[in-house]
Structures are given as C-alpha cells and as structure tokens.
Amino acid sequence: MTSERIRRFETEQLTLHVLAATVAFLIVLPVVIAALVSTKRAGIVTSIGDLAPGGHALSNYRRALIGLEFWRYMLNSFVMSVAVVVGKLIVSLLAALVIVYYRFPYKNAVFLFILFTLLLPVPVRFVPLYRLTTELGMGNTIFAITVPYLASATTVFILRQHFLSIPASLVETAKVDGVGPLRFLWSVLVPMSRAVLVGVSVIMFVYTWNQYLWPLVIINAESLQVAQVGLNLLRGQASTGEVAWSMVMTGSILTLLPPLALLVLFRRQLLETFTIQQK
Amino acid sequence: MSTHEVFTDRLQAGVLLLPTMVVSLLFLYYPTVRAIGLSFYQASLARGDVFVGLENYRRLAGSTEYLRSVLLSVLFATCVVVGVMAVALCVSFLIHEIEVGKGLYLVAVIWPYALPPAVAGLVFLFIAHPNIGIFTSYIEALGIDVNWFSNGPQAFVVVLIAAVWKQIGYNVIFMTAALGNVPESLTETAELDGVSRTQRLLRVYVPIISPTLVFLVIMNTIYGFFGTFAMVDLMTKGGPAGATNILIYDLYRTAFQFYEFGFASAKSVVLFVAVGLLMYGQFRLSDRYAYYGG
Amino acid sequence: MTDVTLQNVRKEFDGVVAVKNIDLQIPDGAFVTVVGPSGCGKSTTLRLIAGLERATDGTIQMGNEDVTAVEPKDRDVAMVFQNYALYPHMTARRNITFGMKSAGDFSDEEIDRQVREATAVLDIDDLLDRKPGELSGGERQRVALGRALVRDPEVFLMDEPLSNLDAKLRIKMRAELAKLHSEFETTTIYVTHDQTEALTLGDRVVVMNDGRIQQVDSPQRLYDYPETRFVAEFIGDPAMNMLAVDISSDGTEYEAVGPTFRIPLPEGDGLETVAGGQALLGVRPESLSVADSADRSSFAAEVTVTEPLGDSLLLECRTGDQEFKLHAEPRTAVEPGDRVALTVETERLHLFDPQTGAAIYHAAAAQPPEETGPIDSTL
User: Fold this and answer.
1) Does residue A154 sit in the same domain as residue A269?
2) In chain B, which residue's Cα lies nearest the Cα of C83?
3) Which residue, A108, A125, B210, C312, is the most exposed by fewest CB within 10 angstroms?
4) Based on the domain organization, do A177 and A243 belong to the same domain?
5) From the CA of B3, how many Å to the nearest CA of chain C?
6) Is residue A78 part of a domain?
C-alpha cells in the first residue's frame, strides 16, 4: 500500500470506531442511567445535570434486598432458573442421545413431534395451561414454573446438531468395545460438548430468568414470586414518597445482573451455540 | 456407510425419550388441544363450562375492538421487525468493518440479549416519563409535548423503541456471525472492483446472509407479537385507549381480568394459527433461499 | 485367534444392495486384505463382521460359533478406523483403557500389564499422557492400534487405517503393521482402496466390486492370473491394456489378430474354446517393449504421449483405433508422433470374454506356480 492509501485506511477505521462507540454508548445509556439513579436517594432526574452519582448505593441496595425483601424474589428466580436449566439439560441430553445414536422405527416422527412444539410457545397456551396446572394441584408452586419448561425443542435440536458433527467412528469404537449408551453419553459426549452445553445453559437460563407472563398468572403468593414480577411489586411497595424510582431502578439493576454476568462471562460459548442453532 | 445409529434396544430408547415425551404431551400438546376444545365453551372458573359452539369465534369476528387489536399487533410487529433489523444490520456491518477491537464493541451491543423485558419496560418508563423523564424537558424544548400516558401514537412509539432496544442484541449476534462467514475472497473481489462500502453491504452481503435474515424476520415477528408483553404490561397496560393493546395483552386481560376462559381460548387458537403460518412461511422461504447455503 | 467364515452374506440398505451374497473363508491367523473401488461393499463387509451392521441374509461364523446375531462386544473383535476415532478429551492412556474398563471384562492388573506390553511394542510409552490433539497423525494411529492391541482380540478389523497419513508415513506404518502381525499372528481383516497396501500386506487378497467378491488369492497369483477383467484392470498400475482381437487358428497354432497386428499365443487351456471368435487381449504395460528389429510378433504403433518416470519411460501409444500404455527403457529416444516397433512378451498374455469379462486363457497357465503363500507357513 502507498502511504496515501494507508492514511485513507486509517481515517476510515477512525470514523468507524467513532460511529461504533457512539452506537454502543446509546445502547448502554438507558442502563447506565438506571445504574446511576440506583445510587441516589431520590430517584428524580429531570435533566442530564441530575445524573451525577449519589452516595446511597449501599443503602439503596440493602433496602431493596432486605428491607423490601427483594432477595426473596431473586432467590425464587434463581431456584426456578437453575431447576429448569439442570432439568432441561438432562431431559434434552437423553432425548438427543436417542435421536442421534439409536435406530428405531418412526424415529423421524418422534423428532418431528419434538420439533413441532416450537409452534406452541407459552403465550398460545397459557390460558389452558393455567387451568391444567391448577387442576393438577401445582398452581402457585415451584413446580408450576419449572416442570412445564422441561421439554425443549430448541435444546434437543442444538444438541442433536452438535452430536451429528462428532465422527460416527467414535460411537462405533465404543460399541465394538462394549461401552454402553449412558456411559458413552457421560464419558464421551458430555466432555466433548462442553462449550455447547455451557452455551445452551446460558440460553436456557436467560430464557427462564426473563419469564414474566407465566409466573405473573400462575403464582399469586408474593413469597413465591419471581424477580421479574417482583419488580412491579417493588414499585407498588416503594411508591409512597419520592424514593420510589431509585428503588425501582435498584431492583431493575439487580434483576439484570445475573443474566448479564452469564452473557459476559460465557459469550464465546454462547455465540458458538447460536451458530449451531441456526443450522 | 458409517452411521451414528449403533444402539438398537427399543425399550432403552423409549425410556430415555420418556421425560421429553411426557412433558411435551402433558404441558405442550394437551393444553393446545384443550384450548381448541375450550374455545367452543363459555368457560369461567366460577360458573363452570357451557357449550356454545362457534359463538366465541362469531364474537371474535364481529368485534371491532379485536379487529383493531389484530391490526395494531401486525403494525407493531412490522415496526419492530423493520426497526430492529435496520438498526442491527447497520451496527453489525459497522462492527464487521472494524479491524481492531471488534470484541469490545460486540459485547457492548449484544448485551441486551440478556436484558429482561420487564427491566427494559421499567427503565424506559422511567427515562421517557412524561413528567420526570430525563430527556422529557429536552424533547419538549423542541416543541413536542411529551404526553404518552394520554397520547396513543406516542405511547405506541415509546413501547416500540423499548422493544427495538431490547431486541438489537439478539439480531447482532446472528448478523455478525453470518457476516463473518462471508468468504474473504468476495469482499476482496468487491474492493478490487471499486464497489463502495454501502453497495458492498446491500449488493454483496445482504443477499449472501439472506437465510439468516429470513430466520431473524420470523424470530423478531414472534418477539413483536409475544415477547413485548412485559413492556406493555408495565408501561401502558395496553392503553391509552387501546393504543398499545396488542393481541397477547388483549388475551391476558380476557383471561385474567374478565375471566372469560372460553373466549380467551378462542383467541389462543387464533394466535396458534398465526404462529403456525409464520413458521410455515419461514420453512418455505428458507427453502427458496437454500441455495445460498447457510 | 480364530477363523472367520461368511456364508451367502447379503446386506441391503433401504432397498440398495451393498453386499450381494458373498462367501468368504478367512483362516485362523491370516492377514487378509479387502480391496476395491469406493462403494464396492468392502467397508460394509468389514462392518458386518464387526457387528456394526446386521446382515440382511446369510451367516457369519467365528470359530465354530454363529455370530450373525451377536452384539459387537461379544464377538471379541477390535476395530481400527481411518480417522483413528480417538476421544479428543482423553489422554492416550485413557483412550487405550477406556473400552476395556467400560466392558468390565478385565482386571486392573491385567489392563496395566497389557498396556505396558502394547505400548512398548508400538513405541508410544512416552506419549501416554498426551491428548490426541498433541499427537501427530502417525502417533494417533499408533495409539488407535494400541487400543486395539490391548484387548487381545480374536480378530483385528482395520478400515483404511493408513489412508489419513502422508505417503512416507504410510509406507513406514505398513511395514510396522506387517511386523506386528508376524509377532502376534492375530487374524486380521484389512480394508483398503489402495492396491499397493492390499498386495504388500495381505497373505491373501480379496478383490471386491459392486457388492461381489471378484477373486480371493495370494498377491502374486492375483497379479499373474486375474480371474476377471475387473481384477486384471484394478490390480496393477498403470492398468493392464485391453485390446479387442479376433482369435485365429490353423489347428495347432493360435494368434490374436487386431487390425494392425498378429500376436502368436502360446498353447494353453481355453484357447480352443475361443478359436475363431472374439476376445479381449490383456497385456500388462511391462510386457510390451520397443523392439530393436521387427520380428514375427512385433507390430507398429504411434507414440502419443511420453512420461519419463525416472526408472522407466511410460509411453502412451496408438495402433489402429486402439490405445494402450507400456513401460519402455528409460532414456529411450522417442517423442510423441514417432512410430515405433513393439514386441510382446507372449508368456504374459491373457484373454478375457468381451461380454462377461471372465478370464478365458492365461499364457503362463501351462506352468502355474504352486500355491505356497505365507498362510500355510503360519499354521
């Protein structure tokens, strides 16, 4: 490259960096504002000048978590999310193992049966599901917000795609050597699928943690409620006086942190897994 | 002729599949079938079920309020899809073109994938608040009266912006991955031919990543219909005067404010058919674009 | 160690017949190579013996036991794959012992002893703590062999085990496999598409095509007495030339007659059956040579391409409308377009039926060498 071309290239790159930084700033800005407000005593900011961080971060978070018992909602969300992630992972691993490594009649029909559930997201069935879970005596329990989530077409599909990319000769060797299917799953497939398992776990966690509609309708005891819905309760409880908004923003930041932390920590595995999902 | 299918014990296969099948049947298929059944009843928790035939559907067809909600949802979802994908495509292209330091920008724009819709709703409710919102005074200085608690179109726009914001991350994840898979040689050929950056995006990249774009159109449409429930619930409650009363919110209110389960089931069935048509559309479209590889 | 017998074995996949009713007897301790073009059914045959596929029809016996319906793990076979099939997350040692430990048929001491012996033989003792990703292709294949060896199976099954290695390493490993076999004398069935491998390794070579066995023989007999046109053309590189000829006879002497040549055929079985008819004359490239002077069996041809190979000069020639190749002396002064006189080593001629491809006549058949393959010597 001539020096002129190098200069042109550098100017272009600089422009791109400025643009990208601006976009990134705009996308992060609302949450930065929320974070700043969560450090102030009164949550009223009506101009950019009001945005200077306050000194009440510690007391705000303590009040939200302990005083207003937001820890309870967080804990419920954790229990729900971890139970769904672990349960779904086990159930889906077993299903994917069968779908890839077993030969049996009507296999394609079974796979289609699982895939077809993609057409049945919570919003199209929450009304009858509400009746069903209530009739089963599961209404208003932890089971109501975990068990119905355990079957997952997406997770089975991602695992299946990944298993199919593992050379068949590995399972053939195992078969000739007398390694059983569960041992093959545990000692070969799981260790070989670590990145994908982490990736799907993050996807499942984010999905479960962010559930709003179903817990809203099926859980009516506050002590069992999850953080998403708890935020609104927090708004109600704190709505007396001007501190309300800093409390709501404090709760919002608390609710955002767990999935955000997982995304930042495991972004490599997450991106890898998303690439599989689309195939 | 090598094969993955080396295990043949059918009983084992059945046992291992059982959890997925039972949960799918009980909590996914059965409620759907039941929704169809229930849609022929007038059903409420208190009074028991009364068979009314097609009455619920007749009511739906004749309801201008419901028709309005349908049109509103379609408009809203369309705006979400167009808005999200336009922004995300520009952002992804920007990041793709950067040589050094991509990773940092990527994290800074994909994080809203993890953002809970409820949090997105509350944060936007706060920063765009008609009275105490941080930008309100600046916008009003431009001569626009911020009053979306009572102004329908404004409420629609504010919820839309929140919805787009939350969905950018998900789209950028897929778009940057797809752009990253475009063969380097094509980029170089385009550059040698003197094709401008914008032309390269529109004439070279977009056609190549079209399978991904089709996939995202479907995912974003479903998000526009369902994923924005929390935002509507927390920001506008469907108002003012039904201006943000999208189908899923309308359905929620029918079932859990008016306790009309039969009528709500009929609305569920309509939604189910809509999702089915969407998925079928994706299936057909991605078939057509299959030759681009994916 | 055991012998393996396939009787009338057939395998169909969704109506496509991959193996068409083959019979094959593999003696105890033999090293049998199975060779053929891709899709000929050789891998399927191996997988049928391993038990990875179930035969649609026919029986497979090991020793005196019918194993047709027996699970692979109960057949006491070990298999080595082209892509090594090593578990990438396990060390070499764990790769070697994983199957044994899972099967639970071996005690820990036994496993330790076997691993020590096998790794010493294969010279991989100091690689045992590495993972496959840290090993070269050759080292990986040694580990894969180690995994097969430690189980001390009745039969080794190898599916193109050297095909992923580069040419030099392939030759080296080939010699080592031969050495291993002479040491352990375990019955080995080795599938390959590479005829050199098949000929150098096998006491006995099975040539397959289109789901059928074409011929089973010792390497040299396969080369000298191909039973079908397919075997004649598949074994040997460049392939045997096939020239369409008429067979003329004056009652005692026979000649293969082409448009531009008449080649006398030494007396032998089968000649009288084709006299007066048509046949394909099979001539290997090394059985033709450029003549110093014309004689009764020489004929003229035009050189179309010359390929100096160093140790010989490969000529592509044309006579009439028939094309063929031959190995000439290196540094022979010919160029494309030259006309040359060629002579034929008449003791190395073959005739094939133009319709069925079956061999009719081998010029050397008058005195076929007695079969004294290494199979017998190992017994």
Assistant:
1) yes
2) B2
3) A108
4) yes
5) 9
6) yes
Contact C73 A176 (CB under 8 A): yes
The answer on A148 and A46 residing in a single domain is: no
Q: What is the dotted CATH code of the domain comprising C4-231?
A: 3.40.50.300
Work out the average pLDDT over B223-241. 91
On whether both A51 and A78 belong to a single domain, the answer is no
Residues C53/C9, Cβ–Cβ less than 8 Å: no
Domain ranges of chain C: 4-231, 238-366
Whole-number Å distance between alpha carbons of A176 and C275: 54
Q: A44 and A92 share a domain?
A: no
The whole domain housing A161 covers 72-277
Please report whether residue A45 resides in a domain.
Answer: yes
Question: Class assignment of domain C238-366?
Answer: mainly beta
Cis peptide before B240 (omega within 30 of 0): yes
Confidence of residue A278 (pLDDT cuts 50, 70, 90): low
Query: By a Cβ cutoff of 8 Å, what residues of chain A touch chain C?
Result: 167, 169-170, 172-180, 183, 187-188, 191-192
Note whether B98 contacts A169, CB cutoff 8 Å: no
Residues of B in contact with A270 (CB under 8 A): 173
Q: How far, CA to CA in Å, does C147 sit from each of C115, C133, C140? A: 9, 17, 11
- Reported as a single tens digit per residue, the pLDDT across C205-238 is 999 999 999 999 999 999 999 999 999 999 988 8
Q: Say whether A34 and B123 touch across the interface (CB within 8 A).
A: yes
The CATH number given to whatever domain includes residue A190 is: 1.10.3720.10
Q: Which of C12, C52, C80, C81 to mutate to test the interface with B (most CBs of B within 10 A)?
A: C52
- Tell me yes or no: is domain B62-292 CATH 1.10.3720.10: yes
Please tell me the predicted confidence (pLDDT) of residue A240: 55
Distance between CA atoms of residues B162 and B116, nearest Å: 12
The mean per-residue pLDDT over the stretch A12-16 comes to 88
Q: Note the pLDDT tens digit of each residue in C150-176.
A: 888 999 999 999 988 888 888 989 999
C-alpha count within 13 angstroms, C-beta hemisphere, residue C170: 15
For residues A142 and A255, state if they share a domain. Answer: yes
B1 touches chain C (CB under 8 A): yes
Give Cβ neighbours of residue B220 (< 8 Å, ≥ 6 apart). Answer: B77, B80, B81, B84, B85, B167, B171
Residues A77 and A15 in one domain: no
Token digits of residue C209: 């095509």
Selected residue of B7, B36, B38 to mutate for chain A interface (largest A Cβ count, 10 A):
B7
| Annotated domain spans of chain B | 62-292
Task: Copy the structure tokens of residue B41.
Answer: 């009843």
CA dihedral angle for residue A34, residue A37, residue A39, residue A44, rounded to 10 degrees: -160
Asked whether residue A161 is domain-assigned, the answer is yes
Per-residue HEC secondary structure of chain C comes to CCCEEEEEEEEEECCEEEEEEEEEEECCCCEEEEECCCCCCHHHHHHHHHCCCCCCEEEEEECCEECCCCCHHHCCEEEECCCCCCCCCCCHHHHHHHHHHHHCCCCHHHHHHHHHHHHHHHCCHHHCCCCHHHCCHHHHHHHHHHHHHHCCCCEEEEECCCCCCCHHHHHHHHHHHHHHHHHHCCEEEEEECCHHHHHHHCCEEEEEECCEEEEEECHHHHHHCCCEHHHHHHCCCCCCEEEEEEEEECCCCEEEECCCCEEEECCCCCHHHHCCCEEEEEECHHHEEECCCCCCCCEEEEEEEEEECCCCEEEEEEECCEEEEEEECCCCCCCCCCEEEEEECHHHEEEECCCCCEEEEEHHHHCCCCCCCHHHHHC
Q: Which residue of chain B is at minimal alpha-carbon distance from C81?
A: B2
Q: How many domains does chain A have?
A: 2
Chain C residues within 8 A of A177 when measuring between CB atoms: 73, 78, 98-100, 102-103, 151
Asked if residues A197 and A158 have their Cβ atoms less than 8 Å apart, the reply is no
